[in-house]
Amino acid sequence: MGQAHWFCEASDCKDDVEILTAKKFCGDLAYRQRAFQKALAEYSSCLLLLPPSNIAMRRDVQEGQARCLAHLGRHQEALDIAEKLRDWATNTDHLTTVLNLQFAIYCNLENTEEMITCLQQLISLHTFNPWYWKLLAEAYMSLLQTPLFISEMKLNQCKDFAANNHAVETSSGKEMSFQCPKLHSWEEDFQSRRATEGKDGDFVSCSANQTGQGSLCTMEESKPQNKVKHATFMSCGQEALKDVGIKACASFVRTRLLLQLMQLQQSSFALENNLRVQQEIEVQVKSFGLKEKSLLLITEVMGGDLIPEKLKEDCQGEVKCIEASALSSLVTASAKEFESKWFKKLQDSLCHLDCPAISTPS
């Protein structure tokens, strides 16, 4: 095992290439040991000695710097390096590496929306990669837990509701103002759904899932008109949750479909891991509580482009060298464009099926 660290004792070496290699390996070792400050110092020292012509090692070292900076809490510096690497990318392999780097930085920042953007761009490059789809599904689930998503949805509900309902008129003819209701987390919301829905799926009570200040329950809900307004308000929130939940479920379904195709070419540990992940996804998909007809529709839509021959070609990992502008255009599609391509047809079809709101995975 001692020979494995030979590069840490190469300081006396006079060969420039060996010195650079030793410093790079020392940085890699320190990073693996989670000594990020030491790793950053090694990478920075190596970068100072690197000639401009050694582009490959320069990219590797700068990536190492960015990852260390992210772990050290210097996220903006890490993102700046990643952006430079992206500008200098000349092939799809470079771009994939940069997007993975940016994804790692945003994971460290717990910025779920940016994580989703990175994954959508990675999927644009690698449409048949099941692991990116699995990460996207998990990111959509995480999005529903983030305070930012909840607060933005809450604000949008308030704006939409207030635009059409400036005040509520009571039986005495007086107007009563309202406050936006407290929105629940993904888990709290759907756990309480069963107790707050009637046979037709409409909200008939708010006492079971509205507590604390800011609840619409302070209005006179004994009046039919107030019940209708409250149900309309809450329906907007449920639709937003349902929309993201469908994207998560659809991404899990596509992951499973891709893994099923991949297993035909796998054996040993790779196959074992594949089957294990498929079982985990099966549990996740079932926990959404979708009806069989809806699930079949999701499977059909998300697997419409899956042909074994195409999958085999994609898995060969061809590196495409193209101009920077053309390379950038491969992944510049907005989140709206990505979701329109992959989920719009699905959302419209489920709407026609009158798909019920999905329940939260446990």
Structure summarized in a few sentences:
This is Chromosome 8 open reading frame 76. It comes from Crocodylus porosus. The chain is mostly helical.
Question: What would you say this structure looks like, in words?
Answer:
- It is built from 15 helices and 2 strands.
- The chain is mostly helical and 362 residues long.
- The protein has 2 domains: 2-130, Alpha Horseshoe (Serine Threonine Protein Phosphatase 5, Tetratricopeptide repeat), CATH 1.25.40.10; 131-362, no CATH class.
- Strands 1-2 form a two-stranded antiparallel ribbon.
- A hairpin with a 5-residue loop joins strand 1 (168-169) and strand 2 (175-176).
- Helix 3 packs antiparallel against helix 4 (75-87), helix 4 packs antiparallel against helix 5 and helix 7 (130-143) packs antiparallel against helix 10.
- The radius of gyration is 26 Å and the shape is elongated.
- This is Chromosome 8 open reading frame 76.
- InterPro entries: DUF5588 (IPR041404), TPR-like_helical_dom_sf (IPR011990).
- It comes from Crocodylus porosus (Saltwater crocodile).
